[in-house]
Amino acid sequence: TAMIKIDMIERNLLERTCDVRWWALEKAFWQCITLADEQKKGSKSKSGSKTASSAKALQEAVDLACTRLEDIRNSYTLYRDLVIADIDGNIIANSNGERRSEVLGMKVSDEEWFRKALETKDGTEYFVQDVSRSRLEDIDSLIYSTALRADGDEQGEVIGAMGVLFDFQGESQIILNDYLPQ
Questions:
Q1: How far is Cα 91 from Cα 139, in angstroms, rounded to an integer?
Q2: CA 41 to CA 173: how far, in whole Å?
Q3: Distance separating alpha carbons of residues 150 and 57, to the nearest angstrom
Q4: pLDDT winner (highest mean) among 11-25, 67-81, 100-114, 158-172
Q5: How far apart (Å, rounded) are the C-alpha atoms in residues 15 and 27?
Q6: d(CA 27, CA 110)
Q7: Is the pTM of this model over 0.70?
Q8: What's the pLDDT at 138?
């Protein structure tokens, strides 16, 4: 029974890594970062002035990315939040609408999950940070992360990171409850 429990937890965690790597290739996410970068570069070259159309396009991209992240979160009840960060570690989209005003714009460049995501060699690699604290939440989470790459190309240039904050304790409890004697 113990071996079955361990195998089920391992299998479940492996499935999460596949999810994170696939989601990182989605157009809504890399396009959001691309537009944010273009607006940053444009505002620097235009002495701080931003065009209304680029600001509107960026806001639409952020809204789409947040909506897509919310869809994912709603399908997996044990994900607390999913976040997209640009290359500088600024959170530009997240899935948790209740914490959105606190999380958007937060800088996470010094967090291990973010740094390790940027170090992945290609779109097949990911990083799992042990259950730990992140400024993204008030509770400890298991954090899966991977790099977002230009144009969603597995071999493309790293342009940001995706982080998924996962309730490992909750998942383990569900699995264990299925096998523990009543």
A1: 18
A2: 47
A3: 18
A4: 100-114
A5: 21
A6: 26
A7: yes
A8: 83
**pLDDT tens track for 137-161:** 888 888 889 999 999 998 999 999 9
- For residues 118-127, b (16+ Cβ closer than 10 Å) or e, as one string? bebeebeebb
What Å distances lie between residue 147 and 45, 70, 75, CA to CA?
27, 19, 22
* Measured CA distances, 10 to 5, 13, 113, 116, 126 (Å): 9, 5, 20, 21, 16
Looking at residue 91, its amino acid is I
Taking only the tens place, the pLDDT of each residue in 57-71 is 999 999 999 999 999
Give the Cα separation of 29 and 80 in Å (integer): 18
User: Who contacts 26 (Cβ-Cβ below 8 Å, separation ≥6)?
Assistant: 68, 152
Rounded Cα distance, 161 and 134, in Å: 15
Q: Coil, helix or strand for 145?
A: strand
